[in-house]
Structures are given as C-alpha cells and as structure tokens.
Amino acid sequence: KMITIGSGATAALSLQWAVPIILGVTASFGTGQEFRSYPRRIELGNDMVMQLNELKLWWMSLSMYQKQLPHNKDKLVLSAEQIIVAEMHASFGSSMSASE
C-alpha cells in the first residue's frame, strides 16, 4: 500500500521516470519472497503425495466387496479431500481464506 502511495506521489511531483523503477523494485522483492517459499511448498506437496499414496494403498488392499460398502467409499473420498485441503491451507495460508 505504501508503495502505491509512494509511486503516486512520485508521479504527482513530475518524477514520472521514477515510477517504473519503484514498481520494478517492488515486483522484484515480491518475486524473491515468493521464490523463497518454494522449498516449503515442495515439501508440503511431497507429504501430500505420500499421504494420498497411503490412502490409495489402503483402498487397493480392500476386497471387491469391501470397496462397495458406503462407509469405505465415504472414508476414501473424505480422507482425500481432507489431505488436499490441509495441504492447500498450509501452502497458501491466509490468502486462501480471503478468497473463500
């Protein structure tokens, strides 16, 4: 917010040449901050894949009869949804709650 005010003030003071510089520096800081979050997001994604694979192995270990039981189907779907939603909340944090 302060960057927007600063770039607006710069433009108002007839220093239009400085506005792209301010915005460029701001964008590079944002990109650097996002880049630093990738190792954590990769780790969280790998954990999610492992949990989903464990869920898949559980499902594949069931007999054909057990796969037809509603409570097993519900467990499969609900568990997969919980794993995915938990990973999304961990990866994106508060930005997701604002968009919901």
How would you describe this structure to a colleague?
The protein is built from six helices and no strands. It is mainly alpha-helical. Helix 1 runs antiparallel to helix 2 (18-36) and helix 3 runs antiparallel to helix 5 (70-92). The two termini are 23 Å apart. The mean pLDDT is 82.
List keywords for this structure.
100 residues; mainly alpha; 88% helix
Helix content: over 70%
Shape descriptor reads rod-shaped
Termini, distance in Å? 23 Å
Give the tally of β-strands. Answer: 0
Order of helices and strands: HHHHHH
List low-pLDDT spans. none
Major β-sheet annotation: none
Q: What percent of residues are in strands?
A: under 5%
Radius of gyration: 23 Å
Counting DSSP H or I runs of 4 or more residues, the number of helices is 6
Mean pLDDT: 82
Strand pairing plus helix content: what structural class? Answer: mainly alpha
Indicate the multimeric state: single chain
Q: What is the strand and helix layout of this fold?
A:
Elements lengths: L1 H11 L5 H19 L1 H24 L2 H5 L1 H23 L1 H6 L1
Helix pairs in contact: 1-2, 3-5
Describe, in short, the structure shown.
With about 100 residues, the protein is mainly α.
